UniProtKB/TrEMBL annotation:
Enzyme class (EC, first level): isomerase
Example of a GO biological process term: L-methionine salvage from methylthioadenosine
Keywords, sorted A to Z: Amino-acid biosynthesis, Cytoplasm, Isomerase, Methionine biosynthesis, Nucleus
UniProt family annotation: Belongs to the eIF-2B alpha/beta/delta subunits family. MtnA subfamily.
Coiled coil: none
Origin organism lineage: Eukaryota, Metazoa, Ecdysozoa, Arthropoda, Crustacea
Gene behind the chain: EOG090X08IP
Any one Gene Ontology molecular-function term assigned to this protein's record: S-methyl-5-thioribose-1-phosphate isomerase activity
Active site residues per record: 248
Record InterPro entries: IF-2B-related, IF-M1Pi, IF_2B-like_C, Initiation_fac_2B_a/b/d, M1Pi_N, NagB/RpiA_transferase-like
Name of the featured protein: Methylthioribose-1-phosphate isomerase
Recorded catalytic activity of this chain's protein: 5-(methylsulfanyl)-alpha-D-ribose 1-phosphate = 5-(methylsulfanyl)-D-ribulose 1-phosphate
Chain's role: Catalyzes the interconversion of methylthioribose-1-phosphate (MTR-1-P) into methylthioribulose-1-phosphate (MTRu-1-P).
Organism: Simocephalus serrulatus
Pathway given in the UniProt record: Amino-acid biosynthesis; L-methionine biosynthesis via salvage pathway; L-methionine from S-methyl-5-thio-alpha-D-ribose 1-phosphate: step 1/6
Marked site (Transition state stabilizer) residue numbers: 168
Length: 353
């Protein structure tokens, strides 16, 4: 079985799986430039914090490869900086694009200042940096999967028959491959430790029912879909062992912004004495933000709530509130924050930066 790939890239050619078409069809669209990537991210044809950053950066690589040879380093630097600043404005909550942009601009400034570096060499170094993101994200996710699976087995004391709940989509579709929280679930499945995954529908955009359910069926993992308002009943009925979710931005104190509905699951997990985990690469941690209070929360169009496709499902004229994300306080993340460097309690993050 071919692995599900949200992002395909080879030497200047970038294609993404249009996630708006899932689960009906697997349609790839071509991203020719930064503007295409910005729109695809804004319209959520590609989504998920790591995937947003990777597509953004690879779209810049596509443009860099097309850039005429012979440009000065100053021109190159301004080009890269301007395009990255634009990409960061596509969606506000996930920090990965911003951190990736900062790292790339830093590299570009260093190359600019170094008189021993020719413009052509600087361009190659920037391309190498941007194009390395796909492989390094997969490597990080594999490590997250291993660390998370081991920790869940250890903390629950159960080697098999684990019942895990997850929210939103954190799998191959949200990353370069394998996934973060869904990667941990994948690792539990690989080691025959998994009994059942309970995935929430994740209203209103339905990342759970459209995307996670698609990945779970595709990979033949034992899974059950629940609506968001069934979470408490499911926790009690199925004796869930652990809940694991992804992150769009983790503040320095461990408070975590993730898909709307994550906070309510963490509150419910506490009531039911269930371990609650966040799985995210270090590129989702914003050490500049002391707590979750300063995380910008994206507000999405009301039509996501009032319509299913083109059919109106809510009374015309009703006022709506549609935040895309919420913030889970660090103290509710009882299992820990699973990263590519290991599993940390919130107060250990800064030390391990
Ligand atoms: O609005 P989305 O679909 O981009 O939100 C995605 C999430 O909230 C994910 O949980 C998060 O980005 C982590 S993806 C590995």
């Amino acid at each position: 079985m071919a692995t599900l790939q949200a992002i395909k890239y080879e030497a200047g050619k970038l294609d993404i799986l249009d996630q708006l078409q899932l689960p009906e069809s697997c349609t790839y669209i071509s991203i020719e430039n930064v503007q295409d990537a910005w729109l695809a991210i804004r319209e959520m044809k590609v989504r998920g914090a790591p995937a947003i950053a990777i597509v953004g950066c690879l779209s810049l690589a596509v443009e860099l490869r097309k850039l005429q040879d012979g440009q000065s380093k100053e021109v190159l630097h301004n080009f890269v900086k301007e395009k990255l600043e634009y990409l960061v404005t596509s969606r506000p909550t996930a920090v990965n694009m911003q951190l990736a942009a900062e790292a790339c601009v830093k590299l570009s400034s260093e190359l600019l200042k170094d008189d021993s570096v020719e413009a052509a060499v600087a361009k190659d170094a920037l391309l190498k940096h941007l194009e390395a993101m796909l492989a390094s994200d997969i490597a990080d996710n594999l490590a997250i999967g291993d660390y998370g699976a081991k920790d869940i087995v250890e903390k629950t004391g159960k080697k098999d028959k684990l019942r895990i709940m997850t929210h939103c989509n954190t799998g191959s579709l949200a990353t370069a491959g394998y996934g973060t929280a869904l990667g941990v679930i994948r690792s539990l499945h690989k080691t025959h430790s998994l009994d059942q995954v309970y995935c929430t529908e994740t209203r209103p955009y339905n990342q759970g029912s459209r995307l996670t359910a698609f990945e779970l069926v595709y990979e033949k993992m034992p899974a059950t879909l629940i609506c968001d308002n069934m979470a408490a009943a499911a926790m009690r009925q199925f004796q869930i062992d652990a809940i694991i979710v992804g992150a769009d931005r983790v503040a320095a104190n461990g408070d975590t912004a993730n898909k709307i509905g994550t906070y309510q699951l963490a509150v419910l997990a506490k009531s039911h004495n269930i371990l609650f985990y966040v799985a995210a690469p270090f590129s989702s941690i914003d050490f500049e933000i002391p707590s979750g209070q300063s995380i910008p929360i994206e507000e999405r169009p009301h039509s996501e709530m009032t319509h299913t496709g083109s059919i109106r499902t809510a009374a015309a004229g009703i006022n709506c509130w549609n935040p895309g994300f919420d913030v889970t306080p660090a103290e509710l993340i009882t299992g820990g924050i699973v990263t590519e460097k290991g599993v940390f309690k919130a107060d250990q993050l800064v030390r391990n930066q």
